[in-house]
Design goal:
heterodimer; A: 356 residues; two-stranded parallel sheet; B: 14 helices
Chain lengths: 356, 312
């Protein structure tokens, strides 16, 4: 037995691609998915730009005349602006001369001199704006950009929180089973036995009446996520039931991994693709819900602009023929929602090719 | 069968109790003292004192819970905090207009969606199918608000085919004059998502073996689709309609707000605006019960649609 065993030729170790790598590869081949991804990223950049103040920070400036026409409709008549201008002119009638009765009359001259020193720059209001103006002459295009910040942020934040709640509860119910599962299922049944929209309104009623859910956009984020976690919970629970009896989890138990470690270190990465698809789906759903809630006045506060508050203004504008705000807010939302839904479909296909 | 129904009814009890607890927690515990909620909304201190006494705000929480449970089971939620109308009266009078709108909507929408879906599923994979699916996806992404604002303006204001908004005392006049535009809008908006969903249900069935068998033995195409496929696809469709039925009672609150229809949906929005908790509490609890009963009825109907289903 002196034969020298020859070492096998060294084969460079090949990394087998992981789930995410494979998914990314599949997603890249999906043309619709990639285009949607680009659009969604564009909107996200727009949101970040508006948030940091790089773009549209001056959205609240009243730059144009009331209901300024869009640039491509420069010649169209604008009765509202003319009415406002006429009102302004009428207001400038010389005041009645009271100098013979006014005890302060001797100081008129001094005041006039002092007033002359202060330079009031009356900015000329533009007749047209790139995509028209609203009632106060604010640029609709900038409002849409600023509104996207609020709408997308609310959608994303609420979806993140809902996914977190759903995943945590789902993991507990699916992994522990037994009493924990019974309790959480009861909890789930309570939430789903109330029609969804009614549940949102009930939470919104308490949020608006007491202000205990915080200020600004926090209440709407909390309301949407506290009511919207149920679907995610159900899916994650099913995944955890499926995975907790798998061999790799048993193996982890055998080497002494704690329950926590098994739940979140071992199983979670293997089911996170389900959570990602749900996150994406719920973002779309919550963006739509935010628009409706803000329209009804239960959403973002009045001093903020979101697509919902823009649509609320647009309702009255359409009657006097000013369609651009409705179009701008409606179209930008439709583009984002379409892209996001298509991206969700592509993500699902890419992450779980069996489903196709 | 009877045993199944009884067991299901028995199982509802913990859920109903849970709903009561949730609503109690939300409105009485998170909501806090009505005196604070109503500050600035009701100026009459006597009325606030009455409300506090009725809810037992100064008593321990189990007493308040007992008050609430009693309210639920005696159908007596007292009076609205803002209009002083009896809550039970509000519910009873507002359901009519909502159903006048929503029942036709569900009926027309389901019929149209099933018809279109079976047609689209039949020509699956063709250009027509793909084009319709793209149109549906785009149509679904436009906010319901935009549709309402635009069509109310177009048909009510510009073309003048329908009244812009309104409601009358007479049922016939409501149904024929005021309801058509909201019904049309709801059907139009609901059609796209349902068409997409039902198409996938039909596609699942079309590829089954029994369809091939039916064709092989020479059953005409029309009969294959309308008898064999439709019957089998009815189960998921029925589930879907069942899920949407409880919503019929809330109605499309957006439509009711826009067309000023005095229904439950608009009442809820007004109640949220005015922090009129008794109204919201009553609607939520009773609708939860209705939802559970409808779910049970849908499950029983499975048996009727599909004799293979057995109740365990």
């Amino acid at each position: 037995m002196s034969a020298v065993l020859q070492n096998p030729p060294v084969v460079p170790r090949q990394e087998s691609p992981g789930l995410w790598q494979l998914a990314w590869r599949r997603l890249r081949e999906d043309r619709v998915g990639m285009i949607s991804l680009v659009i969604v990223i564009f909107f996200l950049l727009m949101m970040i730009g508006a948030f940091t103040g790089v773009i549209a920070s001056d959205w609240a400036k009243e730059k144009g005349v009331s209901y300024a026409n869009p640039s491509f409709l420069a010649g169209a008549e604008n009765l509202e602006a003319r009415a406002m201008a006429a009102k302004g002119e009428a207001g400038k009638v010389a005041p009645v001369d009271l100098s013979d009765v006014d005890p302060l009359a001797p100081r008129y001259k001094e005041w006039e001199e002092r007033a002359a020193k202060i330079s009031v720059t009356e900015t000329r209001r533009a007749e047209t704006l790139p995509f028209g103006g609203d009632k106060w002459g604010r640029d609709v295009l900038k409002k849409v950009v600023k509104g996207s910040e609020v709408s997308i942020f609310v959608g994303l934040a609420a979806a993140l929180l809902a996914t977190f709640i759903g995943t945590m509860l789902g993991a507990m119910a699916g992994y522990w089973g037994g009493k924990v599962n019974d309790f959480l299922e009861w909890f789930y049944n309570i939430f789903t036995s109330i029609p969804y929209i009614l549940l949102i309104l009930a939470f919104a009623a308490v949020a608006t009446a007491t202000g205990k859910f915080g200020k600004g956009i926090l209440p709407i984020v909390l309301v949407l996520s506290f009511t919207g976690w149920t679907g995610i919970y159900r899916l994650m629970r099913a995944e955890y039931i499926k995975h907790s009896s798998r061999e790799y989890v048993k193996a982890a138990q055998a080497i002494g991994a704690t329950n926590m470690s098994r739940m979140f270190h071992h199983i979670l990465p293997n089911v996170s693709h389900v959570a990602l698809v749900q996150l994406s789906q719920h973002t779309v759903q919550f963006i739509k819900a935010e628009v409706i809630l803000s329209f009804l006045g239960f959403g973002v506060p009045v001093d903020m602009v979101s697509w919902g508050t823009m649509l609320a203004e647009a309702q009255n504008e359409l009657v006097i023929g000013k369609w651009w705000q409705l179009f701008a807010a409606g179209a930008s939302m439709a583009v984002l929602v379409t892209a996001f839904s298509l991206l969700t479909d592509s993500l699902r296909d890419a992450l779980d090719p069996k489903l196709k | 069968m009877t045993a199944y129904v009884i067991r299901r009814l028995w199982q509802m009890i913990p859920t109903i109790f849970g709903v009561i607890l949730l609503i109690f927690f939300l409105f009485n515990w998170v909501g806090g003292d009505p005196a604070q909620v109503l500050a600035g909304k009701i100026s009459n201190p006597e009325q606030i004192a009455n409300i506090r006494k009725q809810l037992g705000v100064d008593e321990p929480f189990w007493y308040q819970l007992w008050v609430f449970v009693k309210q639920v089971f005696t159908f007596d939620f007292g009076r609205s905090w803002s209009t002083n109308e009896e809550v039970s009266r509000i519910l009873v009078t507002r359901v009519g207009p909502t159903l006048t709108i929503m029942l036709p909507v569900v009926f027309i929408e389901t019929t149209l969606a099933v018809l279109f879906a079976i047609m689209v599923a039949y020509v699956r994979g063709t250009l027509t199918d793909r084009a319709i699916m793209i149109v549906c996806t785009v149509a679904m992404s436009i906010s319901f608000l935009v549709y309402i604002i635009f069509f109310q303006w177009l048909f009510g204001f510009i073309l003048g085919w329908f009244p812009v908004q309104g409601w009358s005392e007479s049922f016939v006049k409501n149904l024929l004059t005021y309801a058509p535009l909201p019904i049309m809008l709801a059907v139009f908006v609901g059609l796209a998502p349902q068409l997409r969903l039902y198409r996938s249900f039909f596609l699942d069935e079309i590829n089954q073996d029994y369809v091939r068998t039916a064709r092989a033995k020479g059953v005409p195409e029309r009969k294959v689709m309308l008898k064999h496929v439709l019957r089998n696809a009815m189960i998921p469709i029925l589930t879907n309609v069942g899920i949407s039925l409880p919503g019929v009672f809330v109605g499309s609150f957006l439509l009711e707000v826009f067309f000023s229809i005095p229904g439950l949906g608009r009442e809820i929005i007004t109640a949220v605006n005015r922090s009129d908790f008794p109204v919201i509490k009553a609607v939520t609890v009773y609708l939860a019960v209705i939802t559970m009963i409808i779910n049970l009825l849908v499950d029983v109907m499975y048996k009727w649609v599909d004799p293979r289903v057995s109740f365990k």
